[in-house]
Each structure stands twice: as C-alpha cells, then as structure tokens.
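[Q] Does anyone have a clean structure-token version of this?
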Amino acid sequence: MGQDELREQAKTSARSSSFREEVMHQVLQLPDFLESSLWNISLYDMAVNLDQPHHYTSFEDYVAQRPLPPPRLWPWHAEGQATRPTGEGLASAAARLRSGLKIAMLQLHDGTALELWASAEAPKAAKELRPIAMGSAVSKLFSRLLLNRALPALMPHTYAQCSGKGRQTSDFLFTIVRLFDLAREWGNSLVVFKLDLEKAFDSLDRSKLLDRLEQKIGQGAEMNCWRGLLRGTSAWLQTPWGSSRVQMSKGIKQGGIESPVFFAHIAELVLAEAVDKYRWRHMVPLYPDLAPEEMMYMDDGLLWNSAITVVETRAQQLSVEFIKYGLRLNPLKCQLYVSPNTEGRHYIILDGVKVQASPSLQVMGITLRVGISVYELVAPAVTRARAKFWELKHLFRAKGYMKQRARVMQRVIGATALWFICVVPPDKAAMTALNSAQLQLMVWLLRFAKRGEETWEDFRKRAFRGARAALYASGLERWSTLWLRRYWGYAGHRVRTVLSAQPPISTDFEHFRTLPWWQYQQSLKSKGLKHKGRHYARLTALEQNLDAVAGSPWRQLAHDRAAWKAREDAWVTRMDVPWSSGRQLSIGDSQ
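[A] Here you go.
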C-alpha cells in the first residue's frame, strides 16, 4: 500500500471517528422535555453503518442520506404540529435540537411493542401468558441514563430487599436454605409463607409510584422525564392472529430497564411500612437473637415464624398494605410450609381463602423442607442439566474440535446446573453425584457407541474412562471443584457485607449461631443452649473445615479479600472428592 493510500485511509478513519463522536453526542444530549425515550434512529443501525465506508461529514448529512422507513411509522410532533418526516426535516430538527428547542419525538413503530411469553409449557388461558414490553436500543439507553441518576436514591435501604445494587439472588437463596438448616439442627418448629402478587407489574398504581419517586429524587428535570415516561401509553400487541393496539393505562412495563428497580423499591417500602405499623418486632420471634423474619426478592416474598398464627396475621396485614399500591396477593399461588413438628392446624386464611400447607416449599425452582439432604437439594439441577444438553445437542454433538465443544458445554450447562450452588453447603455425596452427571454429559458429547462384541460393562467402563481423560485434557474443572470455589468466594463476600451501609439479610444469618458462639455455649455447661435430640451437625462441621483452611476464626481472614482468595486452592484440596480411588480396577462412574 502506497503512502497516498495510507494517508487517505487515515483521513477516512479520523472522519469516521469524529462523526461517531458527534452522533453519540447528539443521542446523549436528549432534552429533558422528551415525552418518550425513543429516538428515530436506532443505535444498532448507527453502529452497523458507522463501521461501513461512507462519505458523511456531519450528523445532518447522515440523517439526510439514510433511507427512511415508511412514513406512517414515523409520527413526528414539533410545537404541536404533526408532519411527515423527510431527510431535510430530520436534519433541521437535529440542528434545532442543538439550539435548545424543546422537541418531542414519539415512539418508533407507533409505540412500544408487546410480546406474549408463555408462563406454562402449554398455556390454556390468558392468565398463563405474560406480556413483555420491547423497545429500541435508544429507548433502553435513555432509560438507563435516567435511571442511573436516580439509582443512589432507590438503592435498598433495609435488610429485607435482596434485589438491587449490592444485592443478589444468592442472598435470598442462602437465607432460606440456612433457615431450613437451622430448623433441622436445632429442632424448632418452622412455618414459612411464600407470597405471590397477582399481575404485579401490570397492577402497580402509577400515581403512588410517582409520589414515592418524587419523595426520593425530588422535583427536577429527571422527575419530569419519569412522569412523561410513566404516563398512559399505548403498545402494539403482535400475535399469530394479528396485531392490535393496547392502551397501557396502569402498571409498569414488564421488560423495561427501570421496571425491576421501581418494583423492588415499592415492595421494600410496603414491607418496611408493615413491619413498623403493625409492630412485628413485638411478636414472639422464631429465634430471640435473630430479628429478621421477612425478606423480598422483587415481587417474591417470604415470611416465617414458629407459630402459624403469627405468620397468618402478618400475611393478612401485608395484603392490606399492598392494596394501597394497587397490588393484591393471589392466595391460589401463595405457598405455605409447616414443619412436621409444628402443633395445631397446618393452614392459614388469607383474604377469605384457605391456603393449605404443602409438604415442601418451592423457591426459585429449588425444593426445600426441614431435614432435606444436600443430595436431594441438587438433584433437580442435574435433571435440568441433562435436559439442557439434549435441547442443544446440535451444538454439543456436532463434528468439530472436542475441546471447544467441551468448553461451550461447561459454560452453558454449568450455568444451568450450578447457578445456585454457591449457597449450598458442600457435601461429598452431592459432589460425587454432580461429577457423575458431568461425565455422563461428556460421554454423550464424545458420541461413544457400543461395539458389537463389547459387553455393556466394558462399554460403560471405556466410555467413562474416556470421558474422564477428555475432561482433563480439555483443561476443565469438575463440577465439584467449581462448587467449592463458588462457595468459598461467596462465603467471603457474605462476611464482608457486614461493613456495608445497609447489610443484606444474608449477613445476619451468616453471623448467627457461629462456631465460636457454640463453643461458648458448651463452656457454660448446664446453662448453655442445647440441641434437641441427636443430629448431624452439618453447619458445625462446615465451619471447622473453614477454620482448618483459613485459621480460627475464619471470618477474620475473609475481610482481607486478597488473602482469602489466596487460600481458595487449599480449600479445594481439602474438600474436593478424588478423581478415583487409586485402584484402576475399582474406578467407578461416579468419581
């Protein structure tokens, strides 16, 4: 390539870079008067075309020369007059936008697009369909920019909400798993109520939401934008039977960038108001030294106590408070769990409807009950992993490099099976079962087939040994190792959150009845707290192993992030199950 060509290419690149910056500047300088969060040119379209050779010299030049969609899809309002857009009109609008003219561009494609997603495998009624709002890239960009300004005021301000900045699903799951472990270890009765809100996102009172939002962020340009975005809008509903326009006069968009934050904030406010108004802390607690007995994750909530009457009273009081925000509990979808050692009735009355106790509790797809083993806890995850493998068999069993396919499987299937594993205490039997399932998936990935003269025993031995060798050659870790690493990392995180401005509820459970506390109780002889009957002290044994690796007490080392990470390999070495028993003839499928 000659010097002239290089010089011309450099000029083109510089011109493209300058133009890209100008385009992004125009998008990011949307006025506060915007009644809609959609711009008439999508960021995706810009990103694609800016990477292609062009001769645009300005934003107006780009707008004028880009082909436009059909005019009916481009409603345009400027100073109260509606006109059909042209290239010159859009270019003029962009120029006037720089001078500060208040212009509102209505939503692209005549408003928000709605998609119906099935909440059941074979939906038979309208209530089994869930409307999801779809918007353009610029709509999401503007909502994100606006939300980021309000986020500091909308962050969780109590222990109860596990959804939001600084909170995660693991906080919610760890708390409920530890609650059931404590009930098993200490032998107390346990009543847990899982609440379900009927049409939560679609029923939320917008006026109440805006009032609460104004109390948090105050009056200003941002609040005016939120009022414009949350006002009554319409959406196009596309189905196999045709399309129609739907008026969205209440609720918030399910699928919007801001919707999860708003709803989590409202749910947290309702729960906090109920706790204070009805003086829940003056009721008899489950554990005298553990005050929190309620938590939320978005619109999912859990209440617990040792007395069913207390749980019933709190559920009814919470239902009354939710009604003030246009929300209602759905007794038919709410769940109630009552441990077998609980005396009295095993049901509650909620809004005049009887909610009968179930033998187990379903929380985010995980089955829980007092006394459940860790193996039973992770068994459904193995089933989901196998189902996911055959759903994507065209990828995992395709012809190609084995190592690349194995890594893709580890990323996809591992996320399906192990997404919650960091909250579950490691157990050797369960780790062995996970490793066995992982090897079975490797056998299917490698497409091993039985030879004609080969017995089933020989085939199984050859297949699993080959899968074990392929897994090692791919440089992938076994699922038991991933389990231990994730548990170690999250354990350190739980301890460190005690230093945050408002620790989540998982922090309270992490520091409740620890090993040092139990050793102190033992030193009190007859005056100390005792277990009821015989049991396997799973939590005590777990903390003893943590102390053996990190030193006693292990929570002290957890506050040093670098030192805690450095001891991770030692934790894996101590707790992981061996690859094999060491005797070649006795190697089993499950190791």
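[Q] Thanks! Anything notable?
[A] The chain has four domains: 12-111, 160-205+259-372, 374-478+581-586, 483-575.
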